[in-house]
Amino acid sequence: MTKFEYAPAPESRSVVDIAPSYGLFIDGEFTEAADGTVFKTVSPASEEVLSEVARAGAEDVDRAVKAARRAFEKWSALPGAERAKYLFRIARIIQERSRELAVLETLDNGKPIRETRDADLPLVAAHFFYYAGWADKLDHAGYGANPRPLGVAGQVIPWNFPLLMLAWKIAPALATGNTVVLKPAETTPLSALFFADICRQAGLPKGVVNILPGYGDAGAALVEHPDVNKVAFTGSTAVGKAIARQVAGTGKKLTLELGGKGANIVFDDAPIDQAVEGIVTGIFFNQGQVCCAGSRLLVQESIQDELLDALKRRLSTLRLGDPLDKNTDIGAINSAEQLARITALAETGEAEGAERWSPACELPSSGFWFAPTLFTNVTQAHTVARDEIFGPVLSVLTFRTPDEAVAKANNSQYGLSAGIWTEKGSRILAVANKLRAGVVWANTFNKFDPTSPFGGYKESGFGREGGRHGLEAYLDVR
Amino acid sequence: MSDKTEQNRLSVFKTYKLYVGGKFPRSESGRVYEVQDSKGKWLANAPLSSRKDARDAVVAARKAFGGWSGATAYNRGQVLYRVAEMLEGRKGQFVHEVAHAEGLSKSRAAEIVEAAIDRWVWYAGWTDKIGQIVGGANPVAGPFFNLSTPEPTGVVAIVAPRESSFLGLVSVVAPVIATGNTAVVIASEKAPLPALSLGEVLATSDVPGGVVNVLSGRAAEIAAPLAAHQDVNALDLTGADAELARELEIAAADNLKRVLRPQAVDGEDFAADPGTHRLTAFLETKTVWHPTGSLGASGSSY
Predict the structure, then answer these.
(1) Residue to substitute from B83, B134, B302, interface A, most A β-carbons within 10 A
(2) Considering only CA atoms, which of A35, A14, A26, A218 is closest in space to residue A107?
(3) Is the N or the C terminus of chain A less surrounded, counting Cβ atoms within 10 Å?
(4) In this complex, do A429 and B78 lie within 8 Å of one another by their Cβ atoms?
(5) Alpha carbon distances (Å) from A176 to A81, A131, A137, A152, B144
């Protein structure tokens, strides 16, 4: 049979205009860092330098927190309906500029345009739209009459969904009347800076949103700042624990959305083709750089061979390459550092005796790339079954009974997500009841919606983002 | 009506029409009635709807119900927000109409129109939240998943407020459609023009045809067939006087329409916080049971 090759279908870069340099966004103005330091942000798919960005330090954090504090009084005193209208404006401008932002995000992050265009950006706009509506309805949210904001929120977000994580942090914070200082990740600062421009277009009062591109030191300074009332962090469990120690004794309210090692449980009656799609979505969406990735496949022993054959066939059809190509399934790994981490963990997997498999897959010569990878013959003791890899690496384990599946799924320091594949409704619900995970997907995976709370059990963090529950993180309801 | 700039030019009058099924028909009866401002000056002729117009409107509303109630709450929210955006752009027209209809100063009318725009925004935000505050999981004492969710009642006939021709109108229509119902609304009898103009806004706001149908005429004449109509599911009597309300409520009992009764004699303060009662009045609660099965004891030790 003739095999038809895909022709390149690149999305145009011309919709986005990236300036050669960007400042910090403090008190409604773009400004240089106090010590004049800058850093470069590169496209992980080509290592091309995209822009030079001011690097925030402790002094800048102080300036931004002061601006947020000054803005807080008026912002929190605005009628909720007026705050709502600002957020609705932001949501609409994001919708209008979504193609531009999708291309920008793909350039700065390395993820496929199909994902930024069809997942990230629609969810970002929807998140602002949803929380906009809460701003004048807080009395109805179940936290008592007239719940009050906390004050200045210090927010530190990761690089895997730069703009979506920003939305998850900023939308509920503003809706409830807080002001924010947000630090985007050092490898993906651009979309947050474009968001600053959107705040200006929306006429948002100065100081309500402050954006500080920078590294971990800026994040630590923000968390430590005595005039911050609320800390929200999404990132690794190790840093999350360090933050929990930092804020101990300060009375700052803390929410953490950390790592995961999600179990994707496939029972013998599951529809194989659908399950395979779900497994692929679960671990290869965003190159597996997803805290709620289904990185442990738990397959019932009786269907292991059939499922793995189908899965390998499917993986052979995944297209890795130019993230701006609309046909691309697997984009670039976000940074050289992250690539090194994934590579090391995969080597550990081999060294510990797990069996490694990847489809034939040509990697581009420049940029950071990692082929989709499966590990079989994995036991619960293996590093690849315990540690979060945060890359396109799936560890396959087996089970015989539902009890065993639940026991293995729960045998993790993490508890963020899980998947269940079976045609039997009562089994879905019974298994879901027993799973110690904050989000359980049944016959689907990696589904997100602004109305639906997201967050972890155990060392995957605490607090919920999204939905009515997401308001609590920003209200003084202790 | 501003004279200086129009010295030599004859202005074009608008023919006010009904808004039914996304179209702008005249009354099938061919009748109109005179609409006057608060000082008794003629403003325009408005269609005097018949019983047949009312029945046609119900058919249109029913036809639109499947699509509208089946749309995601997010989508409905965006459509309602779009109405606010469109109204903001046509504020001048509505300020003018409300000022004449209710005998108000321009600045007072502007306040009312602005409040009406904000009311659309308020309800736009409710579409995807009402289910989260009135629905939820029920902890039944058994191995069952048990979830209650609100669903729209269906076609709602609304007698719009008599005095508050625009803010009152928006305040009764928006909550009905926010949750996925479709509406047949009878405009204020003496001040129907803002309502008929609202139809023009809805027609250009991504609101599917038939979701809102606007009739003008004598409330008593049009409301009676709606209250007795077997394909109408609910009745909002806000604009009916006590005697009419009682008659309509009796007629509504025939197929047990959900009825929202008018407030106190002095009417409702539409400038006040609207709360949620107008949303919940036209919702059904559906509860789904599903067995959760059992895994045995061992799963619980983790």
Answers:
(1) B302
(2) A14
(3) N
(4) no
(5) 11, 9, 10, 11, 35
The CA-atom distances, in angstroms, between A469 and each of A166, A451, A465, A466 are 18, 9, 7, 7
ipTM of this complex prediction, to 2 decimal places: 0.95
The shortest CB-CB distance from B295 to any of A92, A142, A431 is to A431
Q: What are phi and psi of B246, to 5 degrees?
A: -65, -45
Å between A346 CA and nearest CA of chain B: 28
Give catalytic status of residue A291 as yes or no. yes
In this prediction, residue A4 has a pLDDT band, given cuts at 50, 70 and 90, of confident
Question: Taking a C-beta distance cutoff of 8 angstroms, is the pair A278, A419 a contact?
Answer: yes
Nearest in space to B101 (alpha carbons), one of B197, B5, B239: B197
Average pLDDT score over chain B: 94
Q: What are the tens digits of pLDDT across the range A424-448?
A: 999 999 999 999 999 999 999 999 9
Average pLDDT of chain A?
97
Q: How far is the C-alpha of A334 from the C-alpha of A41, rounded, in Å?
A: 11
Say what the pLDDT of residue A384 is.
98
Phi-psi region of A445 (alpha: psi -120 to 50; beta: other; left: phi over 0): beta
Residue A379 pLDDT level (bands cut at 50, 70, 90): very high
B123 touches chain A (CB under 8 A): no
3-state secondary structure B253-294: HHHCCEEECCCCCCCCCCCCCCCCHHHHCCEEEEEEEEECCC
- pLDDT tens, A84-116? 999 999 999 999 999 999 999 999 999 999 999
C-beta atoms surrounding A242 within 10 Å: 14
Active site annotation includes A257 = yes
| Bridge partners (DSSP) listed for residue A52 | A21, A40
Verify whether the Cβ–Cβ distance B129 to A451 is below 8 Å: yes
What's the CA angle centered on B229, arms B225 and B230, to 5 degrees? 165
In the structure encoding, which two tokens stand for residue B36, read together?
A: 């006057």
**Does the beta carbon of B276 lie under 8 angstroms from any beta carbon of chain A?**
yes
Give one word for A231, left, alpha or beta, with left for phi > 0 and alpha for psi -120 to 50: beta
DSSP code for A470: G
- Using CA coordinates, name the residue in chain A closest to B143: A430
Place of tokens 């940029």: A367
Closest Cα partner for A59 from A214, A245, A232?
Answer: A214
Using an 8 Å Cβ cutoff, are A130 and A188 in contact? no
Q: Which residues of B touch A130 (CB under 8 A)?
A: 74, 128-129
Say yes or no for a CB contact (<8 Å) between B128 and A130.
yes
pTM of the model: 0.96
**Contact between B226 and B238 (Cβ < 8 Å):** no
Neighbours of A146 (CB within 10 A): 8
Write out the H or E segment, with its range, that includes residue A346: helix A336-351
Instruction: Return the structure tokens found at A382.
Output: 């293996």
Q: Which domains does chain A have, with CATH numbers?
A: 13-258+460-474 (3.40.605.10), 263-442 (3.40.309.10)
Beta-carbon separation of A411 and B129 below 8 A: no
Q: Which fold has domain B46-290?
A: Aldehyde Dehydrogenase; Chain A, domain 1 (3.40.605)
- CA dihedral for B19, B20, B21, B25, sign (positive or negative): negative
Distances (CA, A) of A125 to A107, A122, A193, A212, B86: 20, 5, 16, 22, 20
